[in-house]
Structures are given as C-alpha cells and as structure tokens.
C-alpha cells in the first residue's frame, strides 16, 4: 500500500511538471520556443554581473520609484 | 515596430533568451538575460551580442546590421514573455553607453502608447530621480513593471 502511494505521488508530480511546462509553452508570445539548452547558460557571464551591480547601485543610491 | 521581430529561443524559466539578428553583416546571435538583483523581485535586463568564438557576451559591440528597430522590438517581446511568467517582477534597464540608452529611449518613445497599456514605465532623470517616462527627456536608466489588468464582466 505504501509503495502504491509513493508511485502515485511520483506520477502526480510528473503530471504536474508536464502541465506547468505545457502552460508556459501555450502562453509564450508568437515566435517563441523553449530551448532547455539555454538554461543557466549566461547568468554567470561578467557582463551581466556588472549590469546587476549597476542596477543594485542605482537602487541603493536613488531608491525606488513610487509605484 | 513592436510586431516586427525575430524568432526567439527561451530557457525553461524564461529568464534567458537568444535570437539571431540577420542583415548585411551576417547572422549575429543576440542574448537577453533577466538577472534578479539584491532586491527580491527586481531584475536587471542584460542584453548583448554573443561572440561566436569565445561565447562571451558584449554589450559594447556595434553590429550595424540595419535592424535596430527589429532587434529592439524582439527585446521588448522578451519583456512580455518574462513578465507574463513573473507578473510581479520589476525590471531595470540601463544602456552600456549614452548612445545606446538614447536608442532605448527612442524605441520606448516610438511605442509609448502601446507600452503604457501594459507597463508602468519610469525613467531615471538627470536629477537622479525616478519619474514616469516622458517623451523628449534624457534618462540614464529605465524601470518597468507590468500592469495587472483586472477583468470584469463589463469588459466581456
């Protein structure tokens, strides 16, 4: 019984992940496609780190706009 | 301009995007990355050309591929995709040079009515203060947040 529940839980998790991926795919703008090869490919590049520091600096010195 | 854009490949979490600029200088791979900064929910928009040999990204290169409007509208489309997925995110964008920041400003100005339907957009003015984006004002940075539309029966 315990084994059956575990199997069912794993199955539901897989279905949930598939459903989320399908939802993302359906909501993408026209001409967009998911490519898992891009995942985490660029986040550690120096350019982006420098820009992140710049953005942090702006928010530290200027603050936030009133939204 | 907003509808004339290149096909885009996106990471599964919709924070990284790639597309190819095609023009007289050939095919140039462009990369757009949204990195969360120190403040939770705030993201920097990073954008540059990918060097085909080293793989590194440069935001200093001037590609002269005669398609700057199409490139900008493709970047704008990534902002729609990103904020569709992260509707509460706030995005900050700064140009790598004054010329590039001016190019961003022109791109926003030319599409302001359409952009303002979907986004709140602020500019960092010369007094280092955020203000709602206005035409013909010089800004050093831009900050955008997706408007949340509340649909009612009246709109159906």
Oligomeric state as shown: heterodimer
Number of strands of chain A: 1
Major sheet of chain A: none
Please state the overall shape of chain A, judged from the principal axes of the Cα atoms: elongated
- SSE arrangement of chain A, N to C: HEH
Total of domains of chain B: 1
**What's the order of the H and E elements of chain B?**
EEEEEHEHHEEE
Gross morphology of chain B: globular
Structural class of chain B: alpha+beta
Helix percent of chain A reads 55-70%
Q: What is the number of beta strands of chain B?
A: 9
Low-confidence stretches of chain B: none
Q: What amount of the residues of chain A lies in strands? A: under 5%
Amino- and carboxy-terminal Cα gap of chain A? 54 Å
Q: Helix and strand layout, with pairings?
A:
The complex is a heterodimer of chains A (67) and B (156).
Chain A: H1 2-27, E1 32-34, H2 46-62
Chain B: E1 8-10, E2 16-23, E3 26-36, E4 42-50, E5 57-58, H1 68-85, E6 90-93, H2 98-110, H3 112-118, E7 119-124, E8 130-132, E9 142-146
Parallel strand pairs in B: 4-6
Antiparallel strand pairs in B: 1-2, 2-3, 3-4, 4-5, 6-9, 7-8, 7-9
